Amino acid sequence: MTSPDLNAGCFGAFFAKRRSTANGTSVQSFSRVTANSQTRTIAYENAANPKSAGEKKSISNFSPFCDYSSGKQKDWWLLEQEPLPSYSLKADDTNELTRNDIGNLIDHTLDKYDAQLRVLSLRIHDHPETMFEENFAHDLLTNFMAKQGFKVTKHYLGLQTAWRAEYSQGSGGRVIGINSEMDALKGLGHACGHNLIAISGVGVAIALKAALQARREVSAKIVLLGTPAEESGGGKVILLERGGYEGMDACMMCHPTVGIAHSTSIGSTNAMQAISVQYFGHSAHAGNAPWEGTNALDAAFLAYSSISMLRQQMKPDHRLHGIVEGKDWLPNVIPDYSKMRWIARAPTSEEVEVLVKRVVDCLRAAAIATGCEIDVKLDVAYFDLHQNSALAQYYTDIVGNRYGLLTLQDGSSASTDFGNVSYAFPALHPAFAIPTVPNGGNHTPGFAKASRTREAHNATMTVVRGLSLTGYRVLTDDEFFCKVKATFEHPKGA
Ligand SMILES: [Zn+2]
Ligand SMILES: [Zn+2]
């Protein structure tokens, strides 16, 4: 076996050794040094090793030196931990909403719809659809909202899978916006829990409608938008540009993540810029006349290496990650085409801009070195998330006092197109913890499983209650709304 003393760095825990098989071909096996220095061997498929074909190759342990995942994993809420406590009104809760029974009405409404919302969530989870192809979710959710008495617009503003569901009471009054995301990740399914986000929007809209109907003297409007392509594609940015959010006084949504049990977070997220680059070369016979070729794959590899080196000179809270794509590649033909997709992230859009310039320099340098033609495109930009402090404070109070949730200020290095919405209107986007497995954070198979559990559903519904009460206050409390507006226009206080 290999010695654990070799390559003891973070990713140096991979060792390989080659052994000969009876027929003279070789099988590669990899051993990984785990947290307690035990080794595990993973047999990789090989024609000479038919026994291993189809075997499940699981990597179950990661070095603790690499544990830089969302928050500290030791604090994560893990499946098989204690169940959610039942919530109850605290005796000292003096909030006006609970005094006038609207809070109880919202709770009662959501209890009544809980089973139906769970079915919607599981059906969306069972039909994962990627960006701009959320047709099943679009039809399921629009039909459901129409049955609840909302005025529904399908295929909203020219986007096949965007939709709008609206309920108005009286004339004039304030407009509260809510967003339901629906998209999944290619190959991973609902590994970001957008099935839970989809039903959270539906839940808030239904609860707010019931609350408004109990206060017929209030004029107000509820607008729920079904927003496609959050993982990439920027569905909300397109809807914003096309006027889909026009008239909203505030907008809200929520997102599941990992974290401490029964916690929610109102931190920011990173700004992000997606970049695509294509290299165009010239094909040639790789054995006969490679000097006649211009190698587009080499350009991609050079660019990848340059950007990997750039990471060393990057700030710790900046992120660069990308992939190489190609078509019709063969080992005996010099590839004449390659494509790369990169994402640059940083806490602010200004920092992203500087980072993107450095990335584009790396991309161009690779084109010069290989003699390829280059085409660089900047795709949709996501802004950092601005949580409106008045909305966040009220949400924190209500979920803490009424439902026993702990609110944290932790931000995320991920990004959301809701960041752009938060620049346009007072906005609230709490994250909330759902229980998962170790190394099962967002964008992993573990999180896909976690997002269909009963515990995840219950955690979502608690946040839905908090958002509903926050939305109700926006619609009905003039003084509170003035504070919301003031903190949007002067975020640092004035
Ligand atoms: Zn997500
Ligand atoms: Zn995601």
UniProtKB/TrEMBL annotation:
Chain coiled-coil ranges: none
SUPFAM superfamilies: Bacterial exopeptidase dimerisation domain, Zn-dependent exopeptidases
Annotated ranges, domain Peptidase M20 dimerisation: 279-367
An example molecular function term from Gene Ontology annotations: dipeptidase activity
Spans traversing the lipid bilayer: none
Record-linked InterPro entries: Amidohydrolase, Bact_exopeptidase_dim_dom, Peptidase_M20, Peptidase_M20/M20A_hydrolases, Peptidase_M20_dimer
Family: Belongs to the peptidase M20A family.
Protein name according to UniProt: Amidohydrolase
Organism encoding this protein: Pholiota conissans
